[in-house]
Amino acid sequence: MRPGERRGVRQSVFVARRKAGWDRLEELIAALDRRGIRSLAPGELSEFGRLYRWATSDLAYADGHRFDPTLRAYLNRLTARAHAFVYGAKTGEPNRIRRFFTHAFPAEFRRSKWYIVACAALFASSAVLAYWLVTIKPVNAYALLPAELITPLHGSLHDTNFKFDRDLAPLVSSAIMTNNIRIAIITFAGGALLAIPTFYFLLFNGLMVGGTGALYTNAGYGYDFWATIAPHGCIELTAIVISAAAGMMLAAPIFNPGRLRRLDALKINARRAGILILGVCCMLVVAGTIEGFFSPLRFPPEVRLTVGAATIVLMITYFGFVGRDRTPIETD
User: What is the mean pLDDT of residues 222-233?
Assistant: First the structure.
């Protein structure tokens, strides 16, 4: 048998033995191209690494035995595509940002649901209590609200709160975002101080919303008050509740580290809380944009309430369903 014929036989046997592995590697690369590295299960990631190592060995073997150039070119392309994922060339900033919003943030929200439920209950209780106390006895507002909020009301919230020049909307929106993000970060960071500042800001916001709503209701402007805060307020108040939940998560290992060392438990919870507070800041950017550009417009209350209801539906959809087809996020 001639040397060329022997090489052809060896190549045929080689391809027959290795083709299934190459095809499987192609399938995994296609999945990575569509959905990213986090879409693979742990077993598939291990398989991907193993097949990549085999493919590089196959390429070296094919080069060493001077197999057909078409086969060597195919193996070279296959290993190059896999190499991009193995060594992170495909994990650029746009993909990381996309994964944060499509997986990390909503998944962490669901994972932290009991912290969020507890904070939401505390916020709602304080708001309802303030509303009831000020409704039955308006003078109670002086005990619950800052003095600057208790002024004689001569018009609806929409008429008195949005008198700025519309040309200043970008500046107003920016100022609202900055202030709300500052409050959210303070609420979150308060968890490191046994969550005392966290609870204070959560209760304060609840009392302010309920008490102010009662003042406007007593003055005959209650319907307009809730319609005015609905478009931006549903997102804004949800963000404040989530920031308080992140603060509680920081404080939890201080009181109960479980089976971990307190420092280790704190590190794990800090990573999780960091995901929440980063998402909160993004939510407050959206809320500030709505408050600066949409809320001041002279739409009927029904339109404003409809927009507020739409934001609630969107948040329920986002936090309830987005990212459920991905693998669980890592905390270690």
Answer: 94
Of residues 292 and 6, the one with the higher pLDDT is: 292
- Range 137-143 average pLDDT: 92
Axis-axis angle for helices 169-189, 262-293 (nearest 10): 160
| CB-CB neighbours of 145 under 10 Å | 20
Mean pLDDT of 200-217: 95
Rounded to two decimals, the pTM is 0.71
Residue 231 in contact with residue 286, Cβ under 8 Å? no
